[in-house]
Design goal:
By secondary structure, the protein is mainly α. The protein contains four helices and no strands. It is elongated and about 45 Å long. The termini are far apart.
């Protein structure tokens, strides 16, 4: 199983959604943690970040079921669950408070 299996068909979209959600959620957390003044100026992006992280993870989870390779499918489903159980609540909580 190589990385090329993650870049074919629905698995590619699932991988992209997961990576995009992870990147945006991590950037959100870093901005809030280390530069809260900058985040207050970028407050209009809050809804976009929350929606993108939550729905990107959800899209990644759903599309993972359509991956052609069984190992890729399992890895994508588990990674989407991990994102959904860790990053999504963190993003929502930091956005609310």
């Amino acid at each position: 199983m190589g990385y090329k299996n993650f870049l074919k068909g629905p698995a590619a979209i699932s991988t992209f959604c997961a990576l995009f959600s992870l990147t945006l959620g991590t950037l959100n957390f870093v901005l809030i943690k280390f530069t809260p003044e900058l985040w207050k100026q970028l407050n209009f992006l809050e809804g976009f970040v929350i929606n993108t992280v939550v729905f990107g993870t959800l899209a990644s989870f759903i599309l993972a079921f359509f991956a052609s390779d069984k190992k890729v499918r399992i890895i994508l489903i588990l990674s989407a669950l991990l994102l959904g159980l860790t990053l999504c609540p963190l993003t929502i909580a930091t956005g609310i408070f």
